[in-house]
Design goal:
Number of domains: 1
Largest sheet: none
Radius of gyration: 13 Å
Order of helices and strands: H
Helix content: over 70%
Structural class: mainly alpha
Distance between the termini: 36 Å
Shape: rod-shaped
């Protein structure tokens, strides 16, 4: 089972990944 701390870290990581993807997509750096 995940601890609350692990869940928090995973959620923060997921948000950063999403922000990076959106930034690349906005810049036209993501195809598809």
């Amino acid at each position: 089972n995940l601890t609350q701390r692990q869940i928090t870290l995973i959620e923060e990581f997921a948000r950063e990944e999403q922000a990076e993807y959106e930034r690349d997509a906005a810049a036209g750096g993501v195809s598809g």
